């Protein structure tokens, strides 16, 4: 326990130093950021990201969904996807570091097929993002948010017989990776995949950290290739790392002080409402 606390303290110090450097750099590059998105939308994106980081720190998931559904209300969907990439990468790296490398290695050994297909499909599907219209993107973002949050809220848990595990791994990984490359979120399909395998909660959190972490690296590489993350958009994404990490830190500190199950349900309800609004925008223009 003492080593865990010391390691967590060191990690917090490193993050504080990195945040200070990032804030200074973002201040210097604010003119470039404002060339991509107006100041009031920058502030709006920061607030949404702060909320997403807090919820991820408190309950372990939902930051990409919150950023997508929240930012998508006012911001172009391709810019939203670009904005979430670096916060997802940094936050998932932090989550893996907190869980430890031992559980991470065990997760890779057991779920390597799922990890492989998720990573490949994120890279592949990310290349199609720039060819999709804005209205279509709103629907692509909104439908999975509503469907996957509703499934979790209703408590449905699929059951997979042992002899069907391998095809289920490939099928679930294909769906999650495709959604990840196009919409930047593969968390809810991963949760359903692990629930179907009856994965214990403690082990599930470690496995999620690895899948989210490796997937976020693939998302970063995929959208470098697609052009979504480019010289004009990466600075906004880098700026959003700051509120994401601050929110996660607060979520870690305060997460044990409230009923997490009730908090999770309220979060899912809010996401469903936001997702319905995204679908409305996509269908009505």
* Sheet with most strands: none
Q: What do the pLDDT scores average to?
A: 82
What is the percent of helical residues? over 70%
Percent of sequence in beta strands: under 5%
What Rg, in angstroms, do the CA atoms define? 18 Å
| Terminal Cα span | 54 Å
- Overall 3D shape: globular
Order of helices and strands: HHHHHHHHHHHH
Count up the helices.
Answer: 12
Poorly predicted ranges (pLDDT <50, ≥5 residues)?
none
Total number of distinct structural domains: 1
The SS-based structural class is: mainly alpha
Strand segment tally: 0
Q: What does this molecule look like?
A:
The protein is mainly α and about 280 residues long. It has one domain. It is built from twelve helices and no strands. The protein has helices at about 1-30, 30-35, 40-60, 65-70, 75-100, 100-125, 135-155, 165-185, 185-195, 200-225, 235-255, 260-285. Helix 7 runs antiparallel to helix 12. The longest helix is centred in the first third of the chain and has 27 residues, at about 1-30. The protein is globular. Its main location: membrane. It is found in: Cell membrane. It is a multi-pass membrane protein.
């Amino acid at each position: 326990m003492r080593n865990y606390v010391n390691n967590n303290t060191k990690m917090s110090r490193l993050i504080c130093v990195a945040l200070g450097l990032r804030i200074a750099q973002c201040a210097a590059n604010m003119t470039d950021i404002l060339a991509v998105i107006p100041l009031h939308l920058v502030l709006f994106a920061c607030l949404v990201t702060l909320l997403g980081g807090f919820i991820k720190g408190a309950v372990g998931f939902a930051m990409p969904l919150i950023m997508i559904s929240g930012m998508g209300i006012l911001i172009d969907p391709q810019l939203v996807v670009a904005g979430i990439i670096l916060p997802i990468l940094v936050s998932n790296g932090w989550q893996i570091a907190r869980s430890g490398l031992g559980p991470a290695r065990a997760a890779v050994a057991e779920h390597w097929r799922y990890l492989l297909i998720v990573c490949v499909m994120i890279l592949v599907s990310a290349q199609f993002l720039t060819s999709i219209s804005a209205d279509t993107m709103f629907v692509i973002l909104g439908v999975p948010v509503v469907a996957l949050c509703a499934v979790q809220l209703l408590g449905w848990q699929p059951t997979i017989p042992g002899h069907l595990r391998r095809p289920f791994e490939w099928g679930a990984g294909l769906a999650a990776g495709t959604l990840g490359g196009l919409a930047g979120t593969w968390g809810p399909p991963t949760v359903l995949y692990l629930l179907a395998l009856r994965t214990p909660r403690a082990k599930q959190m470690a496995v999620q950290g690895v899948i989210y972490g490796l997937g976020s690296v693939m998302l970063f590489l995929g959208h470098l290739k697609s052009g979504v993350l480019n010289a004009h958009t990466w600075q906004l994404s880098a700026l959003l790392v700051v509120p994401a990490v601050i929110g996660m830190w607060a979520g870690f500190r305060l997460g044990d002080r409230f009923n997490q199950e009730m908090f999770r349900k309220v979060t899912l309800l809010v996401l469903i409402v936001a997702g319905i609004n995204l679908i409305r925008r996509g269908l009505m223009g």
